[in-house]
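QA checklist item 7 of 12: single-chain prediction sanity check.
[x] sequence parsed
[x] length recorded as 215
[x] structure emitted
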Amino acid sequence: DVFEQPQHVGHKKIEFHITSDIPAVLQNNSEKEKNGKRSYSKYVLIDLYAAAEEINNTGFGRIFPAPSSNDKMETEEEEDEIPSEFISKRDLEKHRLSREEMEKYSVFKNYEPGDPNCRIYVKNLAKQVQEKDLKFIFGRYVDFQSEVERNMFDIRLMKEGRMKGQAFVGLPNEKAAAKALKEANGYVLFEKPMVVQFARSARPKQDANEGKRKK
């Protein structure tokens, strides 16, 4: 008598009344739920998330935005690039003369790349150029994780005499040398465009000297 006896209460139906305009996506989802005899209250949050995602196309609730196509291209380029202690291909192209511009310089008159080999010849270098500058450029064509390639990479910069402003760079193979010639020829270093060619072989001169010695 002291406490009121609890009255049995049946299952109550929960309904949601949305007064604002319901997007077409929600209406379609609501109709599907009715036809499938699902409980709207159980899935309403999921449908709201899905509707917002389809309407705004921004990925409601995402932590990280999806990368754009430009971001993907930059990522691929960065993965393809060499370590930062060497010049990038992008910088080489940016500061390299075009063919039309090369024709305006006398140093490129009658330019011939020469016979392919693993050694290249560089001329028209500014007096400020040092070996570290050439290593910064041509080191990108060497795999420094390979002891063989490290040993084959050699730079000889001439700073005196008739050969002043010229250099010889030894690379691991002809393929690397050909790529270096193609990408670095015409590169403007200290306001002077480099002229890059394949170095001439020294063997004929050695043979001639040996012939003189025999005589």
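[x] summary fact logged: The chain is about 40% helix and 10% strand.
[ ] second reviewer sign-off
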